[in-house]
Write a structure and sequence with these properties.
With 365 residues, the protein is an alpha/beta fold. It has helices at 16-20, 25-31, 39-47, 50-64, 108-120, 140-152, 166-175, 188-194, 200-213, 229-240, 261-268, 276-289, 306-314, 334-344, 354-359, and strands at residues 69-79, 125-130, 156-160, 179-181, 216-218, 221-223, 248-253, 294-297, 319-322, 347-348. The termini are far apart. Bound molecules: S-adenosylmethionine, 6-(5-methyl-2-OXO-imidazolidin-4-yl)-hexanoic acid (DTB) and iron/sulfur cluster (SF4).
Length: 365
Amino acid sequence: MDVRCFGGKQPTDRLTILAIKSDKNEITKMTQMRTDWTRAEIAALFDLPFTELLFQAASVHREYHPPTQVQLCTLLSIKTGGCPEDCGYCSQSVHADSGVEATKLMDVQAVLQRAAQAKDAGSQRFCMGAAWRNPKDRDMPAIVEIVKGVRDMGLETCMTLGMLEPHQAAQLAEAGLDYYNHNIDSSPEYYERVISTRDFQCRLDTLDHVRKAGINVCSGGIVGMGETREDRVGFVHTLATLPQHPESVPVNALVPVKGTVLGNMLADTPLAKIDDIEFVRTVAVARITMPRSMVRLSAGRESMSEATQALCFLAGANSIFTGDKLLTAPNAGDDSDGALFAKLGLTALKGEEPARACKSAVPAE
Ligand code: SAM
Ligand code: DTB
Ligand code: SF4
């Protein structure tokens, strides 16, 4: 395998600073977030009777979050296709025969226009994705300008640009980027069966650079890539044992795109499609093990029944992507989401996420 990610892994500081300042209740609660879950414990959660698992997840959910509010995020592909990586799920890889055309990085003003539309449509966060292995330093000035412009509109910003070097993470932090999305996507073991152009440790290294730069972390993955229950255990275990839980955890259901390795695999063996109940179980276990995190019901909603989505919300999912397009794949769309929210009595989240609110409660040194 050709592995050329940047830099070595650096030691983590495991919330020491917060622990020292733990005189406020909220902060004490934060330091008590468990990051020592074992795989056996997580497997045992997956094994619970479904109704018991959902009851536990819903109980944790309402302890830490307003249970009927769902965060609305909008996604925009600011640089599409032509990616040199060989991720088996992705329509934007040059190795896929998906028909997605490669574009250049969008013009700053065009991005800002789309952000303004997202804000008008009630979105809280604007997430921007680029089909890069990693940004080049010459891309950074435009990226920085985009982050500043979107922030100035009063939207939260999130970017997903591939692997970062520490100095790039620092540039994004300086620009005021709120979140960086970088998914671990599966268990360490299954990862190398899906991607050969980088390894799992590269993902962890970038997450470490992002965390150290002071940017909130958004990291999750894809369920339904042909992985086993054990892989789903390993996936949640990796996230829940990071030195600090990601503030956002997107759980995507694989969108099977024709021409990608995994899309073709599913077309050939439809029975390999993830079972809805198993998907909901994954959401529930993520909620229980990472109580404060926003768990985002991400890709795949378009082909999910209302009942399955409702179970995901009951299991603790509290964030979605709005609009009729993800990066290249279709999304549920505002009309059907509006109808679903009305049917379920859900409303858009207002205010700060619990993990961030807790952080801002840390007294200044
Ligand atoms: N190139 C960057 C990277 O890979 O980190 C950012 C963009 S990449 C498209 C962001 C994430 O989208 C992936 O990590 C994966 O979780 C998700 N994704 C991509 N294709 C998908 C698909 N067909 N179904 C579900 N999720 C997908
Ligand atoms: C994430 O976890 N899901 C989003 C976002 N992060 C960037 C991407 C989903 C992509 C779905 C496939 C596509 O649109 O091409
Ligand atoms: Fe490239 Fe990201 Fe797609 Fe992988 S997931 S091929 S890195 S755009």
